[in-house]
Design brief:
454 residues, alpha/beta, Rossmann fold, six-stranded parallel beta sheet, four-stranded antiparallel beta sheet, 13 strands, 15% strand
């Protein structure tokens, strides 16, 4: 019996996808699935959803719930973690504080390591606690980490513990928007995508066996300007329009490879993010995912999704499969487990220690690359070299920032966090950064972080 623990199962939108995928993966029927969350109400809702979906799809699992993380981990073979400590409330408060000190959209205006508060402390601390519990309770289990920051988190866990860790994200599917816009047959397209999580690039792009970058160049030259004036772009949701935004094209021009997925928001140049008007120039009317408009839309969508999911999951008068058709999602978590358990070889895009795959990156740094997964585990596929301009201006600086964040966390150095703030182009003085850092660490939700960063 395969034992799967879902930590942070109360995230009903995400958990429903995993549960549906499990139910539709016959090779995993008969497994023991433990749902764990600290929120009993949400946990019960997900359990109710799972039992109904099992019945509707004729799946067979031993399903349990618990509020105790250690109970969920005991003897697990696979652990899926989707925990966001503290939710988004404190992050939004920190953003407002930073704006009061001159940092538009907070110190995380471009998403990198900001998840979980200043220095990503809360998330990193949770990652280590979870992995160390696993060392004691299920030392041979695989940890499938999906909570942000995946780059910092996967690197930290693989360095500091003996746990087999895989970081998972779905941002690489952004290339499909490019394929669609170029009107290419997806079956004849081959891509290679590599980098760090939220910093991935299309290192290879072919169509019918030929280099397809010239097709993209032609679209940029002849159609992009018209596309950006079209209602299709102007009315798109911010997280859908970014892949072919002026920002993405500018990044391609600057760095020689096309950025994919969240890369367009997280490692785009600082001058794309000076103020709302500037963001609207580069990302369209909403100003992109992380603008005050785009982020507000996202948070509202999350609330509506939760409300809808709650209603569908608890309304037994409506067949559950009507709201959740029995079709596999694009998430990679369950395919990973199926590939390892049943030796169903799969080509996936995962975050794993580099081990020499990408030239110029240390072996113990987590990279997001194409891999083959089967009963033997993870086999890394070769990746093309990055252009030097991209390597020196984006890849290495992003890696250095990750190292700075992990160093500050592991050594408990407040001064290192301060030096990170000093590198922000919006920092005018040492005093400005010092006052802001002290203010952030003095907040009640950051008491543990304040004790860590001395």
């Amino acid at each position: 019996m395969v034992q799967i623990a879902l930590i942070g199962a109360g995230s009903i939108v995400f958990s429903s996808k995993l549960i549906a995928d499990l139910c539709l993966t016959q090779g995993l029927h008969g497994s023991k699935v433990t749902l764990m969350d600290i929120n009993k109400e949400r946990l019960n809702m997900v359990y109710h959803f799972a039992t109904r979906y099992m019945d509707a799809t004729h799946a067979n699992f031993l399903l349990k719930t618990t509020l105790d993380r250690k109970e969920a981990l005991r003897d697990a073979d696979f652990v899926i973690s989707s925990v966001k400590i503290g939710g988004y409330a404190s992050m939004e408060k920190e953003r407002k504080i930073a704006e009061d000190y001159g940092y538009y959209r907070g110190i995380g205006d471009r998403v990198s390591d900001y998840y979980g508060g200043i220095g990503a402390y809360h998330q990193l601390n949770f990652f280590l606690d979870l992995a160390r519990d696993m060392e004691n309770l299920c030392p041979t289990a695989w940890l499938i980490e999906t909570a942000n920051p995946v780059f910092e988190g996967t690197t930290l866990i693989s360095r500091e513990t003996k746990i087999k860790t895989i970081g998972v994200c779905h941002g690489h599917f952004g290339y499909e928007r490019i394929v669609h816009q170029l009107r290419l047959n997806p079956e004849d397209v081959r891509v290679q995508i590599a980098g760090f999580n939220h910093c991935i690039w299309m290192t290879r792009f072919s169509y019918n066996g030929k280099n397809a970058y010239p097709l993209l160049d032609n679209w940029i030259e002849k159609e992009a300007t018209t596309y950006w004036k079209n209602i299709q772009f102007l009315k798109s949701l911010p997280w859908e329009s970014e892949q072919l935004s002026p920002s993405a094209v500018d990044m391609y021009t600057l760095y020689e490879l096309f950025p994919i997925g969240d890369t367009v928001r997280s490692v785009s140049p600082w001058w794309h993010h000076v103020d709302l008007q500037t963001k609207q120039k580069w990302y369209g009317p909403t100003g992109g995912f992380d603008s005050e408009i785009g982020w507000s839309m996202y948070m509202k969508m999350r609330e509506e999704e939760y409300k809808t999911m709650s209603e569908v999951a608890t309304n037994e008068s409506v067949p559950l499969t009507k709201g959740f058709p029995p079709a596999l999602s694009s998430e990679q978590h369950i395919p990973i487990i199926d590939a390892i358990v049943n030796d169903k070889e799969r080509l996936l895009q995962l975050n794993v220690p580099n081990e020499g795959t990408i030239s110029g990156i240390p072996r113990d740094v987590a990279v997001e690359i194409p891999v083959v997964v089967n009963r033997r585990g993870i086999q890394r596929l070769p990746v093309d070299n990055f252009p030097k301009r991209l390597l020196y201006n984006i890849i290495i600086p992003r890696m250095r920032r990750m190292e700075q964040v992990l160093h500050a966390f592991l050594e408990g150095e407040r001064q290192s966090l301060l030096l990170l703030l000093m590198e922000d182009p919006r920092t005018d003085s040492y005093e400005q950064a010092t006052v802001l850092l002290d203010k952030l660490l003095s907040q009640s939700w950051n008491s543990e972080a304040a004790n860590c960063y001395k």
